[in-house]
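Dear support,

We are seeing what looks like truncated structure output for some complexes. This example has four components. We would appreciate it if you could run it in full and send us the complete C-alpha cell output so we can diff it against ours.
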Amino acid sequence: MGMWIGRNRKARVTYGFDEIALVPGRVTINPNELDITFRLPRKEAEPLELKIPILASAMDGVVDVRFAIAMSRLGGLAVLNLEGVQTRYKNPQEDLIAGRVRQIKDGGVLAAVSSIPQRAAEFGRIAQEAGADVFVVQSTVSTARHISSEYKSLDLGKFCREMRIPVIVGNTVGYDVTFEIMECGPAAVLVGVGPGAACTSRGVLGLGVPQVTATVDCAAARDAYFKKTSRYVPIITDGGMSRGGDVCKALACGADAVMVGSAFAKAQEAPGCGYHWGMATPHANLPRGTRIKVGTTGSLKQILFGPAEVDDGSQNLVGAITTCMGNVGARSIAEFQQTEIIIAPSIKTEGKLFQTVQSVGMGTS
Amino acid sequence: MGMWIGRNRKARVTYGFDEIALVPGRVTINPNELDITFRLPRKEAEPLELKIPILASAMDGVVDVRFAIAMSRLGGLAVLNLEGVQTRYKNPQEDLIAGRVRQIKDGGVLAAVSSIPQRAAEFGRIAQEAGADVFVVQSTVSTARHISSEYKSLDLGKFCREMRIPVIVGNTVGYDVTFEIMECGPAAVLVGVGPGAACTSRGVLGLGVPQVTATVDCAAARDAYFKKTSRYVPIITDGGMSRGGDVCKALACGADAVMVGSAFAKAQEAPGCGYHWGMATPHANLPRGTRIKVGTTGSLKQILFGPAEVDDGSQNLVGAITTCMGNVGARSIAEFQQTEIIIAPSIKTEGKLFQTVQSVGMGTS
Amino acid sequence: MGMWIGRNRKARVTYGFDEIALVPGRVTINPNELDITFRLPRKEAEPLELKIPILASAMDGVVDVRFAIAMSRLGGLAVLNLEGVQTRYKNPQEDLIAGRVRQIKDGGVLAAVSSIPQRAAEFGRIAQEAGADVFVVQSTVSTARHISSEYKSLDLGKFCREMRIPVIVGNTVGYDVTFEIMECGPAAVLVGVGPGAACTSRGVLGLGVPQVTATVDCAAARDAYFKKTSRYVPIITDGGMSRGGDVCKALACGADAVMVGSAFAKAQEAPGCGYHWGMATPHANLPRGTRIKVGTTGSLKQILFGPAEVDDGSQNLVGAITTCMGNVGARSIAEFQQTEIIIAPSIKTEGKLFQTVQSVGMGTS
Amino acid sequence: MGMWIGRNRKARVTYGFDEIALVPGRVTINPNELDITFRLPRKEAEPLELKIPILASAMDGVVDVRFAIAMSRLGGLAVLNLEGVQTRYKNPQEDLIAGRVRQIKDGGVLAAVSSIPQRAAEFGRIAQEAGADVFVVQSTVSTARHISSEYKSLDLGKFCREMRIPVIVGNTVGYDVTFEIMECGPAAVLVGVGPGAACTSRGVLGLGVPQVTATVDCAAARDAYFKKTSRYVPIITDGGMSRGGDVCKALACGADAVMVGSAFAKAQEAPGCGYHWGMATPHANLPRGTRIKVGTTGSLKQILFGPAEVDDGSQNLVGAITTCMGNVGARSIAEFQQTEIIIAPSIKTEGKLFQTVQSVGMGTS
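Here is the complete output from our reference environment:
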C-alpha cells in the first residue's frame, strides 16, 4: 500500500470527492420509501433523532439564531459558533451565550453550540445550563493528546464524562487518531482536515487529507471501536461538499451525517446575506478567512428539499440523497455506506451541456 | 483489481473517452470497403438493418417527426420521446401518440418512440398499434428489479414478451445488471449512466460510470449472455460522445451502435433551433435540464457524412468511423470492437494548432 | 503490463512529452564538445550527414524553396510537399516538380520532397530524376500492408528497392508495424500518429499514440531490426514538439532526429507569413486543416541557434539539445538516447515566474 | 519501481509539492514550544545557527546588501549573487566584491555570497578575505565531475578543502550525484533542478526532477553519507516553493532548510521593487530570465512572521512551519522530516472559498 515518492520513502494515494463516483445498484428502490434518519447518542436517554443527516457548520456567515431554528424545523441541526460575532460584542459572555441558547430553544427546537477546545470547559458548562442539546468542540486538528508546557490542554475524556449533553468532537482524520478520540467518550466525531477548496490548510500549511480517504479511514475506526465496545460513535464528514453529489459520496464512503457550510451561506436565512467567510482566530499572526460572495440562491428549504432552481447540485441536497440511494438500492444510511465506489476521472462541466436527472429505476417517480 | 481509497476499502479505476485512444493497426483498409451496418433483432423476422450504427437521442431539442424521417432516410434511427413536447399539449394521449407514429411512418421510414418505464405498458401498446417499429424504455438507471410499495413497477420481462416490436431498454452500466436485463428479453440495451459532461448525475447525485468502462463491462455481459443463450443482444452506448473520436472509441470498446444527442442538436433539422435541453421530469422537486445554446452548424447529412466545415470532430461522424476503421484495419463493427486501446493522457486543444486528418494507409483515399 | 479498463479488457498506459522529464547525469559535459550529427543511410554511398538532427515538416506554411535552402544551409533538412501549393497551380506536374527540385538544388543544398503513397511511384521518379536527394512517402498511418479492391496500393518494398535516393516512410507507431516497414527497405521511418495538440486525429478519429511511447516503441523496433540485419534505420519523431524541451525528450526517448512543423512556421523565412495550417486532402468529405496564426517571432537561424528572444522554449532548439546533452552527460545522440527518464507531473507555467537556464556543470559555459 | 513508458523502457514516477499533502499527527504540540533552528557546519568551529531554516535565493531582484542585513537580523540568511548587478558595474571586481561583503558585515550580521563554478576559485578567495561567512557555488546542474577540453573545470574537492568558511554547493538532484558531491566536502548541498513553475529548465531543456522526489532522494544520500562518515551535510531545498505549505512539505520530505526566491521578491526590502527575474547568463545565445511583476505585498518581517494580510500562503512562512509542526506533532526539524506524507489530488483554489487556519490541537493558540 503506497507509492514510492523517492528513495526509501512511500506515500499512500488518497482520494477526494472529485476523484470518485458511485455505481448504480442491481436493485433500485422508490426514493420515497427510504430512511435517512441520523441518530446522535445521548447519555441515559434515547438518541437525538435528526430527520435528515445534515448539519450546518458553526460559521458566522451561516448560522445565527434564526437560521438555527429554521434548520432544526426542517429536520437538520445547525451549530452556533460561540466564538463568532453572535456572542462577541457583549459582556459578560455567560449571559450572552446563555441568551443565544435560550433564543434557539424558544424556537421549540434543538440547540447546538460550539467552541474551540481551550474555551470548551467554560462555555460547555454555560451552554448546558442554558439548555443546549448538543455541544461541539472544534479545532482544525484534534487529537486525544496535546503537548504544551505553556498552558493547560483540554482533558477531552474528563470533559466528555462531565457533560450531560452529547459532545461532538473534531476535526480529525486517520484511523488511529479517531479511535483514540472515540475512547475519550464523545457522542460523535467530525471528520476532515483541509478538505480542498473550502480551506487553506493545504496551501498555507501543506496539511490535509482528502475527504474520501479521511471518511473511509474514520469509518473503519468507528466500526472497529464499535466492535470492541458495542458503542456506536457516528462520524460526521465536515467540509469540501458543495454539491448534492459530494454529500452522497461522503455518506457512501461511510459517514453517518455531513456538515455543510458554503451551500447554506447561499440561503435566504443565512446571516451572511450572500457572503461567506471562515472563522476568525484570536491569534493575530495567523492568516484569517477571506470574505467571499456566494450569492443568495434560494430559501433554506429549497436548498434542502428543492425544487432546485439551479442545476449545479447546490440545491435539493436531501432529494439528491434519496434519489441516489434509490438508484444504488440502499434503504438506509447504513446500507448506503456499502455502495460500490469507483475511481473515475473528474468531470469538467464548464460550458458543457447539462441534462436532467430523471426518474429512478422502473417505477413511477 | 482496484486501488485502496482508504482503510479496508478498494475501488476500481474506471475510464472515460478522454482517457483513452485507439492504436493504428498492422494492416490498413480502404475505408470505402467496410461494413458498418447495425442489426437490431426482431421476433420472428429478419433484423432491422440500419446502414449506420448511430441513433439519435429521445430529446425534445433533437428529435421531432421531421428529424426522425430525415435521420431514417440517411440510414440511422431517431427516437421520438413520447413524454416530451411532441405529445404533451393534446388529449387524449392515445390519439397524439398514434398520430406522431403515423406521421413518421408516412415518411416511409422506421419509427422509434420512447417512454419512461411507468408509462411503457400503456404507451408501448399504443405505439405498436400505430405501427411503430421500435419501442424504447428509458430511465436514468434501469435494473431488472425495482422495489416499491407505493406503486406497481414495470415488469420488464412481461413487457418484452408481450411486445411484438423490438424493445430497447436502458440505461444501465455494469456486467451483472446488464446480464439480468438481457434475461428479460429486450432487443438491445442502452449503456450509460452519468457519462460526464452531458449529464448532471455525477455532480447532483455523485452517480455514474465513465463510458469506456461502462461499455467494456456491458459488452462482456452481452458476450457472456450470447455464449449462454446464443441470443445476441446488441448494446448501444448512449451519452458523452460529442465528437467522431468519441463515437469511434465507444465502438472500439465494444458497442454495437451509439446514441448521440447534442451533436444532432446542432443540425438544421433539429427542432431545438440551435438549443439543446434535457428531458423534463414530472417530479417538480428534482433538478431540471438547462437550455443550452449549441448553435446550428450544418445539415444532418453534413453532421453524419460531411463535408465537415468545422474541425472539432462534430461533423462527418460516419466518415470518422470508416476512416478510423480503415486505419485500425477493421472490416466490420465486430472487428472494430477488437481494436487495441491505450490509456493516453488527455489532449488539450485550446488555442493549439489543428492539422488535417489525411489519407489512410498506403492507398488512394 | 496494462491496466484493466473494464471487465476482461486491459490497456497499456502511454505517455506524451508533458508527462515526462529528463534527469541530470552524474557527469556533465561542455556543450560545445558534443556531436549531434544525424546520418541518413544511402544506397552504395556514404550517409547524408545533417549537422543538426532536425527536419522541417512537409507543410505549405513552413517549407517552400527559399525556406528549404535556408534550412539546409543551417545544417538541417526541410521537406517540400509535392502535393501542396508549391506544385499545385501548374501543369504538367512533371515540369513543376522537377522545377522545384532544381530550384532547391540551385541553392547548392540537399533537396527533400514528399508525397502521399498513392502518388509516390510517379512523383518519386520525377523528383529523383530532377536531382532530389531524399524522397519522403507520408500518410497519417502507414503500414506495410494496405487492403483495397478499389485501387492498387503502393508496393512499399518495390518502391524502396527501385529508388536510388533514400526513401523516408511514415508515419507509424508501434513495434510490429515499424519493424515490418523497416523490412520494406526505407532509409528512415517517421514516428507519430496523432501526437496531441498538433493534430486532430485523436479528437476526430479517436486515433493516436502519445509520442513518448511511440518513440520508445519504434526505437525498440529499430534496435531489434538492426540486431537482426545489421542495417540501422534511423527513426525521426514527427509532431507534437513545440519547444526545445520536447525535442530533447524525443531524442532521449530514442529518436535519431526530429521533424518539426509549427516552431518553423514562426520563422521569417516561412512562406506562411506567421500562419500555419495542415496539409489539405483531396477527399472533399474529410475534415481539413485550420489556418492558425502563430506569428513571426524571429529568423530561422534564431529559432535553431538563438539568441532566444522568447522564453517559452520555441527558439534556440539546437542550444536546447546541446545544453541538455551537456547536463545529462551525453556526448552523442546515441548516448543521449540512454538518458534516464522520469514520469513527472506536468508543469503549469501560465502566469508563473520564469527563470534563466544557466550554465552547465562545474565548467565555464 | 517504475512504470513502462514503452517497449523495454521504464521510468520512475516522481512527485512535486502539488501532488502531496502532510498528515496530522496522533499528538499535537503547542507551536510556541518548537525548535526550528538550522545549523550549518563549519570547519573547526561551532556550526552557524540560523533561527529559522530559510535562505533567500541569490537573485538580483531579491537580495542586495540592505535585504541581506534585514534577512539575517530576522534569523535567516540571504545570499548575494556576486555575478549580478550588485557587483557588475565597477572594476576591479575584487574591490567591489570585498566592498559588498563588508557592507553586509557592517550590519553586524552573517554575510553569504555566491558565484558560478567557473568563478568560484577567484571570488571565493576574495569574499573569504573580505569577511564573508558563507560561500555558495551554484549552477543549474552540479556534479562532482565535469568534462571539458576547452577549459579547466572547478575542482570542487580542492575548493572545499581550501576554503575556511562553509561552502554550499548546488544545485543537484539524485542520490548518487548528491553522495558524490558530499564526498567533495561542502558544508551543505542545494537541492533542485527545474522544480516546476519557477524555472524554464523543464520547458526549454526537458530537464528537471520534481522537488518532492528530489528532496527525498537527496535526504537519503545525506543520511547514507552520515552513516558512512558521521559527517552530517544538511540539504537545502531550493526552488518551487511559493507558499508556506510548500516550505512545510520540503522540510517534511527531508530538507534541513529551504531556499526561497519569488516569495521574497514581494518584500518591501527587495531591490526588485515588486519585480522578479532570473539570473542573467553571460552566454548570449541561451534564453534569459523574464522580468515578472510579483508586486510588493508587505515587509520581509511580515512575509516571514506575519501577520499575514493575504490568504494565499505567501506570508508568515515561519508561522506556517510552526503551526504545521504543531499539527503533525514534531518538536524539531529532524522530527518534522519524519512526517507522514500522502499523495493527494491537487487542490484548485481559483474562485473558491477560503477558510481560516485555526488553532492547533486541544490547546490555546
